[in-house]
Design brief:
This protein is an alpha+beta fold. It is about 25% helix and about 35% strand. The radius of gyration is 18 Å and the shape is elongated. It holds the Pfam family MaoC_dehydratas.
Length: about 160
């Protein structure tokens, strides 16, 4: 699996089922947890109270699940594959399999698990299967996400 970087002009036809992508990583900090809590109103003690998190059986405060998911979505945009996305269609099958701790470095890995044309010849749909992976190679979250993507103008014209 190789990393893709930069802002590319990737069209629907450029990726097919089985293609794999890897985004860059980020080290989760105290600031991520505090800012996420402030942004979303999610002031749960597991994320903000060290003693509470340890009493709950964790090694320390843990990242919010939706924060981990958002980091994966955002970090994969840095690969440049989303330059022709016309719409984000949603998430499915979200599973958190391990906690993300302050100091963990996570990165997204994604595979194109579905690619289909739509009834409109200028667009197609990609479904990506995501894995959020920490610095130890452990999968901490999985989910799928679908996107409506512009097709190459010459490809759309061929079907007209």
């Amino acid at each position: 699996m190789s990393a893709v970087t930069g802002q590319g002009r990737v069209f629907w036809e450029d990726l097919t089922v089985g293609d794999e992508l890897r985004g860059p990583g980020v080290t989760v900090t105290d600031s991520h947890l505090v800012q996420w809590a402030g942004l979303t109103g999610d002031w749960v003690s597991l994320h903000l109270d060290e003693d509470h998190a340890r009493e709950a059986g964790f090694a320390g405060r843990i990242a919010h699940g939706p924060l981990s998911l958002s980091l994966s979505l955002g970090l994969l945009t840095q690969t440049g594959i989303f330059g022709n996305v016309q719409a984000w269609l949603g998430l499915d099958e979200v599973r958190a399999s391990a906690p993300v701790l302050i100091g963990d470095t996570v990165h997204p890995e994604a595979e194109i698990v579905g690619a289909r044309a739509t009834s409109k010849p200028d667009r197609g749909i990609w479904t990506l299967g995501y894995r959020t992976v920490n610095q130890r190679g452990e999968t901490v979250m999985t989910f799928s996400s679908s996107f409506m993507v512009r097709r190459r103008p010459e490809a759309a014209g061929d079907e007209a």
